[in-house]
Amino acid sequence: MGVQWDAISTAEHVGSVIPPTDNAFGRTYSAATYFPGQGARTVEFSFKGIDIYVFFILANNVPGAWTETFCRFILDGQATDYHHAPSQSADYDYNALVYSQHNLSNVDHTLLITADGYSTKSFMNFDYAIYTVDDGTSSIQPSTPTASSKSPTGAIVGGVVGGVALLFLILVLLLLRRRRRRPAEDSSIAATSGSPVLMPFTLSHPTLQLWPEDRAVPHDATPFLIPDQKKRTPRHTPNASMSSSSEALRVQRQAEISDEISGLTRDMHGSASTRGWEGSEVSRVMEQNTVMKAQIEQLQAQLHSDWALGLSNDPPPGYSNLRA
Asked: According to the model, what pLDDT value does residue 112 have?
């Protein structure tokens, strides 16, 4: 990542616009004021992913200081302009989403943030960026920015929080509940239709990755199909003589497992939305999310176990201890 301010202290350029670092990501940020005719102020970094989000700290009413923001985001040559008009509030706007792009190709991208060529001044305060990747790698590495000033460097944070993965999980739960409500007659119709039936997604949920420069939360989702009638094993074939008590037991047990999955996913989402991690917290959060990911995958496998289907009264190994 490159941060190109000028060679003198940032404080000389931002005047009294010095937001407290308590609410900044990693308690640091990069700030400068562009002056017409004095050269560009730029931030540039590369990433490989499918979504990108950029967050500034925006200033509002600071007596005696310029707080209006003009800048341009150039992603792989495509430019988008941004403008922030300060309000009368004395508060700073932390975690302000100022730029985002979605559904990118999963290739290397370069994003340039620049203030240049304006006829008026522009205050810029880059806090951090988030990008989403769709592979399963995980690593921690130090930030190594290049800058020509004394200003601190904001973190670039990759992948969060699995917004897409969370959407898929909601779809899973809705489909499961709908499937539980359907009477046995619907199952018989589906069994004799001859076409494959789409089932809920089997998810590999994200683990939280926190880098000073990259925080990536990979996600993937693989749909699967019930085999058609000719290829079904006895376990897949609906049993018209299934008693109502057995069906009620299946619904109860699968609902219990689904609730466990939902609770774990909320826990992961909550930890991923936390701001201001420090060194020791990074490892702790990653370990917690790795454990929860394994628990979710185990619960998903148990949704179709003999116990969950009401065919056995022996819970799957380790089930009772998953949320302990």
From this structure: 96
